[in-house]
Amino acid sequence: MRYKFLIIILLLSFTVCSQELTSVNYNKTPLEDVLKDIEVKYAVKFSFNTKLLKNQFITLNNDEIDLNSILEAITKQSRVSFKKITDRYYTIRANNSSISNLQELDEVLLTEYPTIGINKKSDGSISVSPDKLAILPGLIEPDVLQSLQILPGLQSPDETAAGLYIRGATPDQNLVLWDGIKMYYSGHFFGILSAFNPYVTNEVNLTKNGTRARYGNALSGVIDITSTPDVPKELKVGFGSNLTHADFYVKAPVTNKIGLVVSARRSFTDVFETITFSNFSDRVFQDIRSYIDENELNSSVDNTFYFADYTAKVIAELSPKDKLTFSTLYTNNDLDYEFRFEDDVETSRDRLDIKNRGASLTWNRTLNEKVAFKTEAFFSNFELDYSGEKTFFGFFEEGEKRNDIKEIGASIETNIKLNETHAINAGYQFSSNDVSYSLYSFQELFDLVPFEESLSLINNTHTLYSEYQYNSDKFEAIAGIRATNYSVADNMYLEPRLTLKTKLTNDIKLKAAFEAKTQAVSQVIEFQSSNLGFGLENQVWTLASGDSIPIQRSRQVSAGFEYQKNKWNIDVEAYYRNIKGITTNTRGFRDVSFFYTTGSTEAFGVDVLVNKKIGNYRTWIAYSFLNNDITIQELNFDTFEFNNDMTYPGNYDITHNFSWSHAYNFKNLEVSLGWRIRTGRPYTELESITSDEEFIFFNFGDVNEERLPTYHRLDFSSTYKFKFSKDGRWKGKVGISVINLYDRENVLFRQFFLGDPLDDSNTPDYEVVQSDFFSFGITPNLVFRVEF
Q1: Which of 47, 80, 95 is the C-terminal boundary of a domain?
Q2: Cα dihedral value 521, 515, 601, 125, nearest 10
Q3: Is 652 inside any structural domain?
Q4: CA dist 173 to 211, 222, 253, 341, Å?
Q5: Alpha-carbon gap, residue 242 to 265, rounded angstroms
Q6: End residue of a domain, out of 58, 77, 95
Q7: Domain that holds residue 60
Q8: Distance CA 212, CA 438 (A)
Q9: Whole-angstrom Cα distance, residue 363 to residue 88?
């Protein structure tokens, strides 16, 4: 029966039917002429004052685009916005000129990249609009971070939303912003879900290379998330639930010029356990449960877990030239996991509490049609509190971990649009980080005295930056530079940025980008938490501090081409990245050395995206090739000095990553199916365990010489939208998704432990115990939503 169901879904996904789409080709075309063309092509009518359209030009080229997408593109490139009266009639009004209107020239490049709601901009960044996003494989709701994983160059080796490895860099090297607030933790549910409510998220901007000059203090990708930007014109309420949590949001106009947007999400897993939560929990704590099952032991488990997030935003249009916004965000993850054998031979308890809170205040001031200012201030606070203890046949261990970051910052930016081809911007940024952590660990068998460590540092960062943007019919360029001073390093770092694009033909564009970046705050691994399974937090944030933890530096260059014709989109980009200042305590060096040393990483890769649309059917292929090597100083055990360099594959060197996705919509029904396959992660084999009269020796093979088995899985999702009322004001949605449809048992991580002695001598060899952490089994989810 299961296979018949799969065959039906596959057949549906290849069915096609017509949709009202057409091609457009505007190159600095007067807006009035564009609107006349749209009226003919889409059979609509616009009502407007011709004075609103004066001296406004549109550039947009697309072989296949719908009406909503083209109106959205015009809004971003002009000073007007559209209001739908009926399916045929629209009114046009003046749009308050904002910083984005002046800053970006001809912003939208490719729409539906690779599907509805994902667009690629001229500067190379990728824009995701959750409220417009079409259905994706395995997702029945538009998760802010998981939605990005359908793109090449982004990988999540541990199947989480928050664990995004962009072109070989680690998640802590990404810059994640929510309404200008820097986020140090962006996950829920052991990182499986993103911590941002998609129903109040307006746009997610992702940059993999050629980062704009305003972004800094992070080596890898930029994920800039913005919530609802404008005053709501009418009251809008939405609420819903799936098998892990419930949520609601309200978007309300307080007056004509002031609006309020609030949202809340909370899991109900601390009240009752669903099959979805059970699968999530089994994945995280599978090492404990596997041990219980294998030894047929009677035990009890008490797993209390919940997450919550709350947002609020006030938007005030003080005048046609001034907009003031205040945003605040709070996220919390709380875990208390305990198990006990009936005979009390072994007990274990882990408690973990992670909080992230922040606020921002932004003032946009438009001086005239060519000059605008943006002033912003923010506060961010991250707290991690962990404690764990374990008793096993008289052996006792315990550990505690505290991590706290308090950051404040302010910035001012000026944007000048010289003409339709040239624009410049410049700004100043200040931030202050107060970072502290404390660690405690004791193992009765190995530690004669407890391990204790604490550190508290403050860093003040000053940055000046400037950027120039040029955009013509044939050539586009963005050149910028940052000059940053970190007080912990007492040094000035220059970070140039460059993005180039030229039109080879009407269908083919060549592109290249370069960026230099630095980072002062990063994560390190100090010790393994007592019982916390694979995927839970094991890192602490710390500041760079001289030679022990240096300022990290990155250089990345990329080049490629884009092809768009006959409803085909092909994007190919090759890149090279070098990161210096990595230490053996960071994620990239996990389980490699017990001795401190520094090193560097080199990543070479190719990202390929191919998508095709036929009527209501879309299909896209994403492929990434990655060669990620790490170089560190090798320790000479005879002299205990570092001398030669050694190079080996990085812990997350996933050579090949391929996915093929399908989406089909018919009226109110959407269906999506996606299959992904990738190379297994490298790992280091523990070959044997020997001993002498004093020590036990762990004899490892070559670092990361072995690889886990190939990973693959099939995901399915489907949603149906309906109306409760004849006027269409009350709307509903139901949906179902299944992750890992054919229940593939994928190995995500492998580690080794000391087993029983193999003989009775005073210097025995010991059994090597291998422990594998597996991916999700077949995991269903359901959703029901209402909006009015």
Answers
A1: 95
A2: 80
A3: yes
A4: 14, 9, 38, 41
A5: 11
A6: 95
A7: 19-95
A8: 36
A9: 36
